[in-house]
Fold each of these.
Amino acid sequence: MENPKILITGAAGQLGQVLTQQLRALYGNDNVIATDINSNIEGLAPFEYLDILNLERLRTIIQDHKITQIYHLAAILSASGERNPAFTWNINLNGLIGVLDIVKELGLDRIFFPSTIAVFGNTTPREQTAQDVPLLPETVYGMSKTAGELWCNYYHKKYGLDIRSIRYPGVIGWQSLPEGGTTDYAVEIYHGALKEKKYECFLSAHTRLPMIYMPDVINGTIQIMQAPKEAITLRYGYNLASMSFTPEEIAASIKKEIPDFEITYKPDFRQEIAASWTESIDDSKARKDWNWSPDYTLDKMTKDMIFHLKQNLNL
Ligand code: SER
């Protein structure tokens, strides 16, 4: 098969920065076009400025670069989303519908849409949460991603678009910082541990959430996009699991490497958001359909995070 020509929206975000590099390593630098509304991240060239609501510009970039696949990552996360619900709905949902329409109009091969554990809500069973469960999300971010999944399923059924989607757990990586999410603490805690040997956590000690380390989430994303069409039996978000832990447990893992690290707790409005999500995920469908299997445990991730962050921060 010929190399795909890929466009990434939201390429300056936490996941986008790393995914862009990985896809370039796989398919060649010039075959992966990074786009974002934030043009301040270095090293993303070839890069095109893109406001996701500007469909004219999106169409032009796709045509200019003969794009065949889109990874549509541009979105506002859960905590930021609560500060401006209507704007978040507009970016997250209308942004997606615009992308889907252009994919349909121009006949692109394939599109990736990231969903999230934020689609779950207080009516969802909290442990080993199955694929098809009641979804009554509490945040506008979760609402927009739930509706987004339905639109993806609809465009596949109605127009045959080849859409692939994963419900990401909280993503942890040393390469980039998350912005405006509820799971951000699990990245910040490593920075705090290394720079100050302490961290004040905005979630309470026993709040268990599904999480995933960057190499696993990147592998899973590329894996689902490379899978043969017939392997993909769900055209809305696949449940994806790796690890689940609480702030107390990640702190204990860090203490094994940095014994004098101290965590304190000062829960804020994000506690309520986290409490509405599930604790652990049943991802048997992803394992069966496209051979998903993560590599990292909490302690293995901690060792790797600390090793790389030390180098990055010159510590
Ligand atoms: N990491 C996201 C958030 O916290 C969840 O998908 O908003």
Note: The longest helix spans residues 85-106.
Amino acid sequence: MKTRIDMHGKGLMKLYDITDEEFIYLIDLADELKKKKKAGIKGNLLERKNIALVFEKMSTRTRCAAGVAAADEGGRAEYLSSREIHLGGKESVADTARVLGRMFDGILFRGYKHETVEKLQKYSGVPVWNGLTDESHPTQVLADLMTVREAFGRLKGLKLVYAGDGRNNVANSLMVGCAKAGVHFVNCTPPELSPQQDLIDGAEEIAARNKCTISIVHNIETAVAGANVIYTDVWVSMGEESKFAERLKLLRPYQVNMKVMQKTGNLEKNKIIFLHCLPAFHDKNTEITSDIGALEVTNDVFEAPFSKVFDEAENRVHTIKALFVAALGPAKNVVKSSIVRKAVKRK
Ligand code: CP
Ligand code: NVA
């Protein structure tokens, strides 16, 4: 029997906090909302809903995706840079949370400490979504696996290899997301950058029930054999800028280039895609790489037809919208993807 999914009033701190069924439901709903938008249908599922976007760190995709997602369904998002509000400075996070909770219907937070997003959830009384902390990036991974499913028509049994900084926010969330979706996850990283053991244990428990595996390996050439998805992220995450030289040294051997793509054995068979959460250092065309050139991925891979990075970026809108609609949509159980399907049919 199919379980009825009801995520009304539910935010998202970490992927561990939602069930495997809820994870897939959000991707299903995002698919439907994407179809609806492509069909040119103006939505009203977030009518009169106000969402605060509280950001301590920079963002292009997450911030814009949330703004567009809210507007597409008749809602409104307000960007609040932590430099311009009293968060944690002149006012405690708990007090700011209580104020925002009286004015807004939900809060999307991006910042440093996971503790801050938890406090916002605890004190605001409204759904809070984690739009990236030092530890995790759950909304990103919904878009990643949506993109994988679009490319292959399925998730279960595929093999995704993440190469690079194995202990960053994206790697941590990707490990859990793959486990929930039944995707074999390989984290290819130097021993110094392996994920925390408790996180690996948690993901392995989820993977076991979904018949997939979690591996942490150090040799990129053997790791990628048979991969369907090669994924990388920046070598130095926001807030870790002082580690730039050290990371370059450690991670050079983990660069995703055409040789790595060839080693998958799936390039000629068209059974491989490349993903990156972005922003990416794939060329000399940024201030940081103007002298040194490509870092985590070479330009030929980034620009190749098998690179789905811009589909992935677009899918940030549809998946964040799914989270907003599931939590704040009209009423309990009304947010079934079938209402979206009907709207598309009517058009
Ligand atoms: N991928 C991602 O989260 O991008 P932004 O930092 O631009 O939001
Ligand atoms: N790991 C990166 C992800 C950016 C979307 C960072 O935290 O900077």
Note: The pocket of norvaline (ligand 2) is lined by residues 132, 168-170, 233-234, 237-238, 277 (CB under 6 Å).
